[in-house]
Design a protein that fits this description.
The complex is a heterodimer of chains A (440) and B (420). Chain A has 440 residues and is mainly alpha-helical. Chain A contains 15 helices and ten strands. In chain A, the strands form three sheets. Chain A has a three-stranded antiparallel beta sheet with strand order 5-9-10, with no helix packed on it. A two-stranded antiparallel sheet of chain A has the order 2-3. In chain A, strands 7-8 form a two-stranded antiparallel sheet. Chain B is mostly beta strands and 420 residues long. Helix content of chain B is 11%, strand content 29%. Chain B is globular, with a radius of gyration of 24 Å. Classes of the chains: A mainly alpha (440), B mainly beta (420). Chains A and B meet through helix 1, helix 2, strand 1, helix 5 and helix 8 of A and helix 1, strand 3, strand 4, strand 6 and helix 5 of B. Strand 7 of chain A pairs parallel with strand 6 of chain B. Chain A: Pfam families: Cytochrom_C.
Chain lengths: 440, 420
């Protein structure tokens, strides 16, 4: 017996393959040879049907269902084939396997198969308490998520927001929104910390999860989370999800012949774009508030716009000035470099502030950075490597900055800075010149 | 002279910059010769670039504004972020890889083919590891499919936000994929393919984005793809191997695909619980909203593509797509949905692929409220924003497939607006 039939026949999976084929083929384009190959499969199924007569009732039902589906598929294919000439054929599904690929070793599966299911399957042995979690969280997570899991800048808020889901702007946190605790453990274990995924131990992950629960007031400070009590833990919003119901609520109503004429009496503009978007040649975009109002815009009826607004008079073009080509002074070059640096610095702005009132964000503020001792900004929680640099009295001179900017993670092994670096020396220099303009 | 004809005339004059103006209707007659024709031009005299200069070509410098763009304030870091396809400036249906939108959760990684491994485990008879070379030995198929982020047009739930179709609708691309049907790999491993089973797929990058796909879909049209538009996938789209899940939200199209696990239930990972779910007005969330419903948008004219030629013949061009199947019809309105005209389909698109539509029309120079409305082969009609909000409220983030409106003023400038 071929391997194909091996998996084709046993009751549960066999039916599924037949159904799978049916689903795979229904509605697709097939030609005659495909139909013939399915006829062969149907014959095979017929043969199996006879064999199955002698087995249990349950199996008979399975075979019957299988046969029905194949008959349906065959009819669909015949219908499709009658309308279609030469069409693309699907890749053949061989009766036997191709014997491609090698068996995965148990060590390999253990290394990669670490996902955790909602019932706790997949969790490793381990445990962690709230206090340990607080320490690990402060060290590994707080730069983005805040000391109290309240979120820094645009980074996700992990705590609070209870009973806001029906509000205008629901606050969807681990506490208020996530339906399963497994998801928290699984995500932290596989995907966090940002820029150092996969480096947490199981106990650290348990501890962080325990601390996030604590920061959501869901456990007391003496709580210890482990694989033992994990499955018992119920999340606040566990019943807050229903399955996609668009088929009933929307499709049924929206599959109708649409209106073509006089579909409305009148149409008015009720809102204009909040942001105009500038698209500079160097890339990215700048959002600029749109000051225009809806006043002065015509309403529309079946006869067209209610009135034709006057065109705005185009500003008179300035008289063409002769292009002045002069030797660029050193001063201008410097200004150009600073200007270039400002553009490059956009890559840094998500985490680092500069200028008046600059605060620490995900990264320390950078006022006075050129010439400053490393790791010395008050109130910023540095990674260990920068704490050590401070102790050693290392200074951010031009050379150190350029090396760090080129490859942050190589220059400062262990830095929390997720940025991958500025490859071009010109970009590094430009940013340094730009930063030099900001004193303490 | 009334407002109307002044407008047309001005627009017309502007359109014919270098030559003297003719009348507002009919063929232009030039009064001075066009130097672009009468004078010997450098490019007609000097030599151009040799065949050894550009081993792999990029668009000519004049097209340097046709690029992916991001919106900095949308996300905390550009490494866990999204950018937008310049759909305003593209034509036809195939998206060039170099300007097809990117969405990463932990950045785009460089994973060499030689280091690539794909594991299938879980409820299988034979847990297997495939190399990249292995995949190229299995029968493969070619299909054009769109990939749309579930959050495309998501900002517009709160009203007209960003002024540009690149930003309102640019989280989409459409490529011809080459890949092995997922069912082939499942069969190689002797997977339990009963329909109550799930296929969990996971990426190799630091985010290890993982999603659960019901077996029925996995056996249907899902591809394990290694080429797009005839060449290797780009790094930012999952080189060397990504999953293609036709018609379903882009987050399921796992990039740098490294593992496929057959499970007896959905994993309910972060990306299928805390994200890619939508809270309705009553605070209850919808999950497993995988299919991208039928949608269309006019790409030109649009805010980034104003009408510059003044009144007269023009082409309204746009895109339509449906995660349920083929686009069968697109209607266009110039008056905000009072009157509709059926557009011409540039070419019948494939199932779950972009279809280009055109309305070849005449602009009288008056303001317009441009809209497009798609229908697919299930008979579904693209809804208005009002219809969507009645069903879902305004707290949704994903799956906004509303009819989009552009207000075109007498100058031909277009703006993103919301209408009654």
């Amino acid at each position: 017996m071929s391997k194909f039939l091996n998996i084709f026949l046993p009751a549960a999976s066999g039916t599924a393959l037949a159904l799978g084929l049916a689903f795979g083929l229904a509605g697709r384009d097939y030609n005659k040879s495909t139909i013939e190959s399915l006829e062969i499969q149907l014959d095979q199924a017929n043969a199996r049907t006879s064999a199955a007569q002698n087995t249990s009732d349950a199996q008979n039902e399975v075979v019957q269902a299988l046969q029905d589906r194949l008959t349906t598929v065959e009819a669909n294919l015949a219908a499709a084939a009658s309308q279609i000439g030469s069409v693309a054929e699907p890749a053949p599904l061989k009766a036997d396997t191709y014997q491609i690929g090698r068996l995965a070793l148990s060590e390999e599966i253990a290394a990669w198969d670490v996902d955790v299911l909602p019932d706790g399957r997949g969790l490793p042995v381990g445990s962690g308490d709230v206090f340990t979690g607080e320490e690990v969280f402060a060290d590994q997570c707080a730069a983005c998520h805040g000391d109290f899991a309240e979120g820094v800048d645009n980074w996700p808020v992990l705590a609070g927001g209870f009973d806001t889901l029906a509000d205008e702007d629901p606050i969807k946190t681990v506490g208020s929104y996530w339906p399963h605790l497994s998801t928290v453990w699984d995500y932290i274990n596989r995907s966090m910390p940002f820029g150092a995924a996969g480096t947490l131990t199981a106990d650290e992950t348990y501890a962080i999860v325990a601390y996030i629960l604590y920061s959501n007031d869901m456990v007391d400070d003496d709580f210890v989370l482990s694989q033992e009590n994990f499955a018992d833990f119920e999340m606040h919003n566990k019943d807050g999800f229903v399955l996609d119901d668009r088929a009933e609520t929307e499709y049924a109503a929206w599959r109708t012949e649409p209106c073509m004429k006089n579909c409305k009496e009148e149409v008015e503009v009720t809102m204009r774009s909040v942001f105009l978007v500038e698209t500079p040649p160097e890339g990215g975009s700048n959002s600029v508030m749109n000051s225009a109002t809806i006043d002065g815009l015509p309403s529309f009826s079946a006869t067209g716009p209610a009135f034709i607004p006057a065109a705005t008079v185009a500003p008179k073009a300035p008289a063409a000035t002769k292009a002045i080509v002069e030797e660029v002074s050193a001063e201008d070059q410097e200004a150009q470099l600073i200007d270039d640096g400002k553009k490059v610095f956009k890559k840094c702005r998500a985490c680092h502030e500069v200028g008046e009132g600059a605060k620490n964000g995900s990264g320390p503020h950078l006022n006075g950075i050129v010439g400053r001792t490393m790791g010395s900004v008050d109130g910023f929680k540095y990674s260990k490597v920068f704490a050590a640099a401070l102790d050693d009295g290392l200074v951010w001179d031009d050379e150190a900055l350029a090396s760090f900017l080129e490859k942050p993670k190589s220059y400062m092994k262990g830095t929390k800075m997720a940025f991958s670096g500025l490859k071009k020396a010109s970009d590094q220099q430009a940013v340094i010149e730009y930063l030099r303009t900001f004193g303490e | 002279m009334d407002e109307m004809s002044k407008t047309s005339r001005r627009a017309f004059l502007r359109g014919s910059a270098a030559v003297a103006a003719g009348t507002a209707a009919g063929t232009v007659s030039a009064q001075t010769p066009d130097p672009a024709i009468t004078e010997l031009q450098d490019w007609a005299s000097y030599l151009g670039a040799g065949v050894d200069e550009t081993p792999y070509g990029l668009p000519i410098s004049f097209e340097s504004d046709v690029i992916r763009r991001n919106v900095e304030w949308l996300t905390a870091s550009p490494i866990s972020s999204i950018n937008f396809t310049p759909i305003h400036a593209l034509e036809g249906t195939i998206t060039p890889q170099g300007c097809a939108f990117e969405r990463h959760h932990s950045g785009a990684i460089e994973l060499h083919k030689d280091d690539y491994r794909l594991m299938i485990n879980g409820l299988v008879e034979r847990p297997l590891v495939f190399t990249y070379e292995d995949l190229e030995r299995l029968p493969r198929e070619n299909h054009v499919y769109f990939c749309e982020c579930a959050a495309n047009t998501g900002m517009e739930w709160a009203g007209a936000q960003l002024n540009g179709v690149q930003f309102t609708h640019g989280m989409i691309h459409n490529m011809e994929y080459t890949g092995v049907p997922l069912r082939t790999l499942l069969k190689e491993a002797g997977a339990d393919i009963s329909l109550d089973k799930w296929v969990y797929v996971e990426g190799a990058d630091a985010s290890s984005n993982g999603r659960s796909i019901p077996m029925e879909k996995a056996l249907d049209d899902v591809l394990v793809a290694f080429k797009a538009n005839g060449e290797a996938l780009r790094m930012e789209h999952g080189y060397p191997v990504r999953l293609v899940v036709p018609g379903w939200e882009g987050n399921l199209w796992v990039k740098w695909l490294r593992r496929i696990e057959i499970t007896d239930r959905a994993v309910e990972s972060r990306e299928e619980t805390s994200k890619y779910t939508d809270v309705y007005e009553d605070g209850v969330a919808r999950k497993w909203t995988w299919v991208m419903d039928a949608k269309s948008v006019i790409t030109s004219p649009s805010p980034q593509m104003p009408i510059t030629h003044g009144a007269g013949p023009m082409v309204i061009s746009g895109l339509a797509w449906s995660g349920h199947g083929q686009i069968t019809r697109v209607d266009v309105s110039k008056d905000g949905g009072i009157t509709w005209e059926t557009a011409r389909l540039g070419k019948q698109g494939d199932t779950k692929a972009l279809t280009r539509f055109y309305l070849d029309t005449e602009w009288d120079g008056a303001p317009m409220l441009l809209q497009a409305r798609a229908m697919d082969d299930t008979g579904y009609v693209q809804p208005t924003k009002e219809q969507l909000r009645e069903q879902r409220g305004e707290n949704a983030v994903y799956h906004n497939n509303c009819i989009q409106t552009w207000y075109v003023d007498v100058e031909g400038k277009a703006e993103n607006v919301e209408v009654s």
